[in-house]
Amino acid sequence: MKRLNRIGPKLVAAVAAILAFQTGVQCCLDYWDDADLLWKEFVRQGKLHALGLARAAEYGLLTRNKGELRRVAEMSWTPDDVSLLYVAFYDESGALVTFKDWSGGAARVPQRQRSVTRASMGEPEHTGGAHYDFHAPVLVSREVMGEEAPAPSHGRADAAKAEYAMVMTRRSTDRLTGRIAVEQRGMLVINGAVFVAASLALSFFAYRLLKPIRTLVRGTERVAAGDFVTSVDVGRRRDELRALADSFNRMTGQLREQRDEILSHSRQLEHKVLERTAELAQANVDLQAELAERNRAERALQKRTDELIRSNAELEHFVFVASHDLQEPLRTVMGYAQLLGRRYRGRLDADADEFIEFLVGGAGRMSTLINDLLAYSRVLRRDKALEPTDCDAVLDEVLADLRAGIGETGAEVTRGPLPTLMVDRVQLACVFQNLIGNGLKFHGGEPPRIHVSADRADGLWTFAVRDNGIGIDPQYYERIFVVFKRLHTREQYEGTGIGLAIAKRIIQRHGGRIWVESQPGKGSTFYFTIPAIKDADHDDACEHETRGSAVG
Fold first, then answer.
1. Max CA pair span of the chain
2. 449-457 vs 412-415, strand pairing mode
3. The pTM is what?
4. Which residue of 45, 57, 295, 537 is surrounded by the most CB atoms within 10 Å?
5. How far apart are CA 203 and CA 209, in angstroms?
6. Which are the contacts of 87, defined by CB distance < 8 A and separation ≥ 6?
């Protein structure tokens, strides 16, 4: 409120300064206008007076009658013409003829003046101080007066030149300046009175205006402090301030209603928050119990996983050791069985020969089975690191090893371009040998047709080994990759049923997967994936062109 209380005096002072400036400007303009009007009136009277004297003094100047000239001057003067100092008459040569002085000798009359013509009538001449001279020419030529003009010179009949005398009046602007000063003081008094009246009226209206504003400010401060019950009263006014006060009172009423509504919602929200907090606390307790139970389950699962890993490791070690240790007695059994067959075949009865054949065949199958188990157990036990390997070269080696089977079956093996990958060369050869060997083994009535290809997508190379064999029923897609799971008897197709299990384990070791797509009687396509080398340029450089030549 202290800052607001200074608005009234500042407003009054500002408007007063504006009024004072306006008054000063108006006084200056009035002064200039009055001074210009009085000066023009002064010049007009001086010119008219000089011209009137010139007309009245024509005869006196022509006859050089000084008395007549003074009489003309006295007749032209009036007591209220206080600005006239003297009247002087000059002949055509510029010499003073006579003068009439009203200045009491204060003004000095010039004895000579320059010759004048009718064209010399003009603005008054300032002679110093507050004195101005007015000139009026008087025609005194003898030709004009009817006398004979002198003979023209140079023998020409030129017109006689007119000669002019002059009347000069000197006037003072002292009275003019006095009149201007008196009128200026009057204007200052009037403008001062207007300024005082305007200031008083402004102070009254400022008080009338600022009083309700102060009331509104005090009400606003109370509302800002949280008092929404307050209201303001600006009296019986019927102007904008009254409308503003009514709007303020309506606003405080609405704020009061909104505050009550907010408080009600706040209490409801607080109640809901408390309920929700209790629910969250209970949920947190339940979650903690669930987490504890899950942690116990995870620890139990981890324990079982560790036990399984240890059991698998022990089992793999057992299989490896058992298979390795069974090789020696099995070789002894096979050796003696073969020796028995060579010595006694044909010496005993037919049953004995058949039993010897069963013994030799069983020992051979047992040897093959043990070798396959050793190969299966060695897949994950190999310590050889993966290295960049040309898959085309690996396939060439496999086909060279299978040349006998290819030749016996009349098979045709084709290929597409194969990449260079980070693999175990020996194990990749084992995969190719198993898949191509199955194509050679499980063929129908037609010669085997086998095609090997590879495509890259999403950072993986997908290999495909397609044949035209007897095919596989979809229900056995998973079973064929299980150890010792066979779909045919040994009399139909030889083997131990472990080749695809070994291939699956090798592909898993390389970070890929293997699967089959087939229909009975329509051939089979075995797919397996191996991650691509990150250096794509090296990868593309190692690819070869499609080789469509047949082997066998």
1. 208
2. parallel
3. 0.38
4. 57
5. 10
6. 53, 73, 76, 77, 99, 100, 167, 168, 169
Are 430 and 503 spatial neighbours (Cβ–Cβ below 8 Å)?
yes
Whether 514 and 423 have beta carbons less than 8 Å apart is answered as no
What pLDDT, in 10s, does the model give residues 342-372? 777 777 777 777 777 767 766 666 666 666 5
CB under 8 A, 24+ apart: contacts of 368-375 = 368/496, 369/496, 369/498, 370/323, 370/326, 370/327, 370/330, 371/323, 372/496, 372/498, 372/499, 372/502, 373/319, 373/323, 373/498, 374/320, 374/323, 374/324, 375/430, 375/498, 375/502
Half-sphere exposure in the Cβ direction for 63 (13 Å, CA): 9
Hey, is 436 helix, strand or coil?
Answer: helix
What does the H/E/C string look like for 321-349? Answer: HHHHHHHHHHHHHHHHHHHHHHHHCCCCC
Tens of pLDDT, residues 491-540: 455 555 677 888 888 888 888 999 988 888 888 899 999 998 765 444 44
No. of helices (H) and no. of strands (E), the chain: 13, 12
Classify 518 as helix, strand or coil.
Answer: strand
The answer to whether 379 and 505 have CB atoms below 8 angstroms apart is yes
CB atoms within 10 A of CB 13: 12
CA terminus-to-terminus distance, the chain: 113
Measured over the CA atoms of residue 149, residue 150, residue 151 and residue 154, the dihedral's sign is: negative
Amino acid at 106: A
CA-to-CA distance for 99 and 463, rounded, in angstroms?
145
- Measured in degrees and rounded to the nearest 5, phi and psi for residue 82 equal -80, -10
